[in-house]
Amino acid sequence: MKLALPTLTLGILLAIAACADRGAEDVAESATPSPDLEQPPRDASPDDTPTGTPTPDTSAGAPEPGDGPASYNGFADAEFGMDAEQVRAVWDGELDGGPGDGPGAESASCFHLSPAGQWSMGHFALMFGDGGFARYSVANDEMTAPGGGRRGMDDAEIVQLYGDGNVERQPHKYSDGEYLRIHDPAGSDAVLIFETDAEGTVTEWRVGLPPHVDYVEGCA
What we know:
Layout: H1 4-31, E1 74-75, E2 78-79, H2 84-90, E3 95-97, E4 110-115, E5 124-129, E6 132-138, H3 155-162, E7 168-171, E8 178-183, E9 191-196, E10 202-208
Antiparallel strand pairs: 1-2, 3-4, 4-5, 5-6, 6-10, 7-8, 8-9, 9-10
């Protein structure tokens, strides 16, 4: 029996060594990355859009330049050629002004109406001449002209919006600026005029029918 103990001990030691070797192999296999988790090929682009991902449409719903109530036909629902009562009927709110008596009063042949409560008639005014709505004038930064022009823009911006070939230049009567005249692209008689100062900055603008659109002293 004493001769069998070394043999038994040797068998136990060999079994333990075999188990240790298998454990080391298991650890080595777990440290090797799975093929499913490998990084993409080096030539894959990080900017590639995954299949099925929609591309945003940034152009949808973009507003057209100059969208708003100002047009070559008139302003909002007030169209050139309407008389004062017709304009009052379609206007959203009250309008002040009109012909009257006394010093400084305007005559029935040419007069202005402005939104009630406005601090100055020059801010926005509707001109009536020869019995009908003939022009509107704007001297504020909030309103946008047909085509996108605004008070405060410079000469270059106006040319960029309307095209140099469509801008007719005339010297300003009272300053070193200019009158930039732009005819209705649809072919009507209406004209858009931007007034600029000596630096070429738009100070006011108006839209209307000749000859009233070219008046520079109110109704004259």
